[in-house]
């Protein structure tokens, strides 16, 4: 076999698979100069060969995994199918047979990444997954390599383009959530079932992967607190602007002396923060290290070609490692076993919008109840009045989540409280 040709198998030919296939074809003339070898797609695994007959040559198409796993000439397997199974089984088997793997599968890596990286280590194989987080934005490799000289203490970012597009439309055009979601769906930014995006699950999976790498300790999706954007209103965004904030769905991972905090939720961030200016479907990740200080990575977080860019970058990296006989050199970096804090143990400031009975002593009673739970009020504004009901906005100082939620539980029982309309966490740093 000509060692200057590296044969690849593509598992899946959907949006990302199509992007990978297109980029590989475009890059073929430059490959010998870039990586010292040529990449050749030998097989493309699909469920329905007829569906792709006009896009992929017949000799490349297969619907049988055995055509790939039993072919020793295929050295790199690229998994862009999505989902846990059969992707997990295929990757396990490929690594066990000494084949290198590239995956864009955030669901899989957020749940079983540690296990798969261990198999890769045992067989001195590369398992690369840059595309699993933030699409075309390089973030995994920078944290594993470029920022290795740092103790990273915080990673935060906008890591879901669908929700950022929705919040941008709500902020700039005054749209309500349902209308902005419909627009996102019509334009192809949101899936037919948008639950994973709008409820924060997609961002939670990506955050688990980033936290594991940043803090060198295994974090899974089950460890991540997730809260979506479906309760955010145009009114909240308008009030946030008046207070000097923008509302974004943020993934926040923080290393504290007590353990790791990992959470995804709508967050009010100061308008002057770089993340506040990230609009539409763009993503951005903010990293704080002790040596580098703050670094931000910004770009397209999804799409056929941006995600395909990250996948092909990984493939070419593996091919270069093979060329120089140094595969398996960068594997699992989780050499610590740190606790993950419960959400109730984390601290934040809070924005609360509520409707109160407009009578003497109401605000004093409310402030007293917050105070008895060690919740200090930073700001209290009356925004509107309807009949005998007043709309009030309160912003607290930093407080333990448990203490704040205990206060809210009691406040809900007070006769003068007609409605708690919104609760949004506030990030000051």
Automatic annotation (TrEMBL):
Its EC number is 1.1.1.3. InterPro entries: ACT-like_dom_sf, ACT_dom, Asp/hSer_DH_NAD-bd, HDH, HDH_cat, HDH_CS, NAD(P)-bd_dom_sf. The keyword NADP applies. NADPH binds at residue 106. The active site is at 206 (proton donor). Keywords: Amino-acid biosynthesis, Metal-binding, Methionine biosynthesis, NAD, NADP, Oxidoreductase, Sodium, Threonine biosynthesis. Its cofactor is a metal cation. Pathway: Amino-acid biosynthesis; L-methionine biosynthesis via de novo pathway; L-homoserine from L-aspartate: step 3/3; Amino-acid biosynthesis; L-threonine biosynthesis; L-threonine from L-aspartate: step 3/5. CDD domains: ACT_HSDH-Hom. NADP(+) binds at residues 11-18. GO terms for biological process: methionine biosynthetic process; threonine biosynthetic process. It catalyses: L-homoserine + NADP(+) = L-aspartate 4-semialdehyde + NADPH + H(+). Gene3D superfamilies: 3.30.70.260, Dihydrodipicolinate Reductase, domain 2, NAD(P)-binding Rossmann-like Domain. L-homoserine binds at residue 191. Pfam families: ACT, Homoserine_dh, NAD_binding_3. Residues 351-425 form the ACT domain. GO terms for molecular function: homoserine dehydrogenase activity; metal ion binding; NADP binding. NCBIfam families: PRK06349.1 (NF004976). Belongs to the homoserine dehydrogenase family. This is Homoserine dehydrogenase.
